[in-house]
Amino acid sequence: MKLKTALVKLWAVASCCLTFGVIFFLFAYIFAKGAGAITWEFLTESPKGMIIGTEGGILPAIVGSAWYTGIACLFGATLGICTAVYQVYYCRSQRLSNAIALVMQCMAGVPSIVMGLFGYTLLVLTLGWGKCILAGGITQGVMILPFIQVRAEKALREVDQNLVRASYAMGMSRAYTVRRIVLPQCLPQLVSGVILGACYAMGACAPLIFTGAVIIAKVPKDLMKPAMALPYHLYMLLTQGTSSVNAYGTAFVMMIIVLVTNSLATWFAWRNKK
Amino acid sequence: MRKTEDRIFHALMGLFSLITVLLLAFLIFFIFRESQTAIREVGLAELLTGDQWRPLIYKDAPSYGMRNMILSTLYVAALAVLFALVIGVGTALCLACAATDRQRTLVMPYIDLLASIPSVIYGFIGLYIVVKFFEKLGRATGESILAGGIVLSVMILPYMISSCCDTMVRIRSRYGDASAAMGVSKWYMAGQMVLPASVRGILISMALATGRAMGETMAVMMVMGNSIAFPKLLGKGETISALIAMEMGIAEVGSTHYSALYTAGLVLMVLLFAINIVFELLKKRLAKEGAV
Amino acid sequence: MSDAIIKLHDFGVAYDQKTVLSGVNTSIRSGRITAIIGPSGCGKSTMLKAMNRMLETQKDAAVFGSVLLNGVDIHTMEAEQLRRKVGMVFQTPTPFPMSVYKNMTYAPQYYGVTGKQELSRIVRENLEVTGLWEEVKDDLNKSALKLSGGQQQRLCIARALTAQPEVLLLDEPCSALDVKSTQVIEELLLKLKETYTIVIVTHNLFQARRIADDCIFMLNGELWEQNTTEELFANPQKKETRDYLQGVYA
In three state form, how does the secondary structure of chain C look? Predict the structure, then answer.
């Protein structure tokens, strides 16, 4: 029994060290290798070179990713949060609520590449938009919708129900209560959920391959035109075996975005708890 | 006045929820519709069990068998879940039983951070570290199912850990005092009580992780070599999602090839669904046996 | 008193700088049942938990003064050693989510008992003491969570006994149980005091009177009055004690 317990301890502690070692390594590796690639030119110029991307910068990809992510958040957050509000405060039947939860679970389980297929056939082909920022953004929006909805629903349910009941007891309508009591109470969690969703969308490449992302484009100005995206650019740089300096640089930028968005999200979530 | 406002608000929320639900319906409908051509022309049996995928060879009849891709997907996902199970459950046990509440809240965001890293970055590091490592060991090419499994396991690790950790913390907070009051050590408690009691929770997290692993595209695509061969541990392979990502760009819209790729997407979804059912049944079975 | 097994000297506890227990001096006599009574929030559970250092698993509890077990300061002992000698049963029954048998072998296996026969003997003897043996002997492998509330609490007592403690601490063990189960447990405690020293926190004055030999009355984090149960109930020395016994605080 002593030996068994010692083995359990060894296994648990070793796995824990391995996990945190990997986390540390991932960031340290990208930061150490990528920091050197970051120059003002890298961040403000378009990709150049005989093979695209070996020289120049990644500005169009940064701006493109910002567009995709912005549209995805707008779409995903609107639908996600409204669905959550409906589920928690309006829908009276438990069955309907369970059905919505099931739909969300299924949607969250759809692989991102299948999301890409869906966006391709519906937005790009059937609606005839062609490959464009809007199609890519909305496809990503569908992908992060359940992600945001689940977090929003949790936040809404955690609101002190005594406050809600007190508001109803004063004859306030549900809409008024939701607007004045519920949403202000859980705003930090909602924001935190949307930020994490944005981070997820920013890094997702699979839904964009057929719906919007291209190898090279100018800094985007038109929503109905395709644009570059950071993850796709990184993928291209790697598979074509071109400049690994710029690949590290691109990865560095993405990791910074991940760090910043996650810190923001954590900060928002913690702030509310205090 | 307020009443009208409430009605409008209600209608609006209802409408948006409806759109959300319809999105899923549309998704299933479109994937299903687009895959019909291939199913009709090639036949489902051939699509699922054929071992030849030659969509672009025109002198022979093209063939669309995705057996190897299906097997590769399952193989690499199983490997990843296995690795993540060993490391993830261990980590969760350590966090749940040895760390204080404060330490845990401090450390959890870093685990979540792991889940936020984009999959291309995992692919990138997999390519430059894992694949290179295998090549250093003397293999001609490091791109392999094993490399894919390793990279994927790190990607699903955070889901595994946070889900298992939740279960274990719940068990510990409920029974931890009773165990401590008998004078046994926390590691004895971890091995003899917390671990056996969280089997169901572990199964649930495995289902979650398997889903993630099978749906993942970019990272596996970058480290597995994408060869349409029968999967071997150290050989190259191509998953269903990688197949779609690689070939959708070259498939002519409306062609059998195009449709076959949608069928691949459909197959992937059905596989995920089936695996979830299997885990659900396992869970029920365990409940029946009274293992809590 | 020479037969005191546990002694508290100027004992006090504070959570987050808020004092919940102070200046407690008392002795628990061995081989007897001591009841700790008092209105809720008076610190009776805190005092009980201090006796096997279960306070340490909670929040930021700061402890002052000393607790002696057989003359040894418990804070110089290892917590595990102490808890082996001073067992505890909680308010809500906490059978582990495993079989009855495994619940009973949990502690013995930790203490190095390996033989199957030896383990079975420990399981059987302790279940017999608590009267549970007859009820579960045919199905020792069934999940402990399937027992009734009263059975679960008796299992917890039996489980605590498997560690072979000298003292058994019980924190309102009957508050979650029905009258019948409460009666069974009270009879059990009376039987157990021949072998073990028992300290029980209870909010039920009748229960204290029925089973306790000694009684400690706590109020506002202080030990207000202590005496044999008979004396305390018949002749309370202080006004507050009399008020409480007459139901003013309840």
Answer: CCCEEEEEEEEEEEECCEEEEEEEEEEEECCCEEEEECCCCCCHHHHHHHCCCHHHHCCCEEEEEEEEECCEEHHHCCHHHHHHHEEEECCCCCCCCCEHHHHHHHHHHHCCCCCHHHHHHHHHHHHHHCCCHHHHHHHCCCEHHHCCHHHHHHHHHHHHHCCCCCEEEEECCCCCCCHHHHHHHHHHHHHHCCCCEEEEECCCHHHHHHHCCEEEEEECCEEEEEEEHHHHHHCCCCHHHHHHHCCCCC
Closest alpha carbon within chain B to C78: B183
Q: What is the pLDDT of residues A152-201, one digit of tens each?
A: 999 999 998 898 989 888 888 888 899 888 999 899 999 999 999 999 99
Q: Would you state the torsion angle of the CA atoms of residues B225, B229, B233, B238, taken in this order, to the nearest 10 degrees?
A: 40
> Is B9–A120 a contact, with Cβ atoms under 8 angstroms apart?
no
CB atoms within 10 A of CB B80: 28
Let me know if residue B7 belongs to a domain.
Answer: no
DSSP A124: I
Domain range summary for chain C, segments of one domain joined by +: 4-93+157-245
**Cα–Cα distance for residue pair C250/C246, rounded to 1 Å:** 9
H-assigned helices in chain B = 2-34, 36-42, 44-49, 67-97, 101-116, 119-125, 132-136, 145-180, 186-189, 195-197, 199-215, 218-223, 240-247, 256-288
C-alpha span between A77 and C160 (Å, rounded): 53
Fold entry, domain C4-93+157-245 = Rossmann fold (3.40.50)
The mean per-residue pLDDT over the stretch A212-218 comes to 88
Which chain A residues touch C114 with a CB distance below 8 Å? 1
Nearest CA distance, A224 vs chain B (angstrom)? 19
Question: How is residue A112 written in tokens?
Answer: 């991102």
Find the distance separating the first CA and the last CA of chain B, reported in whole Å: 54
CA gap B148, A231 in Å, rounded: 19
CA neighbor of C92 nearest in space, from B11, B260, A247, B174: B174
Predicted TM-score (pTM) above 0.95 = no
CATH number at B145 reads 1.10.3720.10
Answer yes or no: do B121 and A20 touch at CB < 8 A. Answer: no
- Give yes or no for C164 touching B (CB within 8 A): no
Superfamily name and number for A42-273: MetI-like (1.10.3720.10)
Contact B93 A8 (CB under 8 A): yes
ipTM (interface predicted TM): 0.93
Give chains near C: 3+ CB pairs under 8 A. Answer: A, B
Domain tally for chain B?
Answer: 1
B120 CB near a chain A CB, below 8 Å? Answer: yes
Residue C250 has pLDDT above 60, yes or no: no
> What integer pLDDT is reported at residue C4 of this predicted model?
86
Q: Cα distance from C146 to chain B (closest Cα, Å)? A: 9
Asked whether the beta carbons of C167 and C51 are under 8 A apart, the reply is yes
